Amino acid sequence: xxxxxxxxxxxxxxxxxxxxxxxxxxxxxxxxxxxxxxxxxxxxxxxxxxxxxxxxxxxxxxxxxxxxxxxxxxxxxxxxxxxxxxxxxxxxxxxxxxxxxxxxxxxxxxxxxxxxxxxxxxxxxxxxxxxxxxxxxxxxxxxxxxxxxxxxxxxxxxxxxxxxxxxxxxxxxxxxxxxxxxxxxxxxxxxxxxxxxxxxxxxxxxxxxxxxxxxxxxxxxxxxxxxx
Length: 228
Known about the structure:
The protein is built from twelve helices and eight strands. By secondary structure, the protein is α/β, with parallel strands linked by helices. The protein has a single domain (3-223), classed as TIM Barrel (Alpha-Beta Barrel). It has an eight-stranded parallel beta barrel, surrounded by seven helices. β2, α4 and β3 form a beta-alpha-beta unit. α11 (205-214) crosses α12. The longest helix is centred in the C-terminal third of the chain and has 20 residues, at 154-173. It starts with a strand and ends with a helix.
């Protein structure tokens, strides 16, 4: 049974509209936690004056004991922030992540693990990338589903799904947990959660889009009913 992780990035993208409706990110997190979300994730780059480190701290605090994954590029200042925050997981995400940040990642990972934090990488479902994550002793990988989600051809979508399944199975055999992320919605999630090795489904935009019409609590519960 896959768990549901609510990605909060879309809220930041539409923060002005949300605030105009009287919604705050800590408020959203509180409602979502009470509605049965298993975890949260949020991307942070430290460069936006609209969402500060203090805002991040308040958002994490509102998640209480629910698992919170901070998505960052492997930069020194962001790593130090992750070390200081009461989060359970750090997900490294960046283009050419191993080529551009390899040495830094090797330094960061032991310290994160010593601090009791799980380490994950957001990756395309490719064997060469999975091998690198394994060598770096990643606890988890988050496999991109964009090719699967964006493919309108049934045969092409099935092929993309099988590639995800193969990489998920390979990761699980090597002791790495598996999440899937990338334009996952109510219509395309079922073939992904039937992949036995998939433990976590990361979803965001489709939840917030549906919440406009039915409310956040119902949107979350409707989605969870599909991944159970």
